[in-house]
Amino acid sequence: MSKTPRISIPTAVKKYVFERDKYQCQSCGKQKEEASLTIDHIIPLARGGSNDISNLQILCFTCNRKKTDKNDNRFRRYFD
Question: So what's the pLDDT on residue 15?
Answer without folding.
Answer: 97
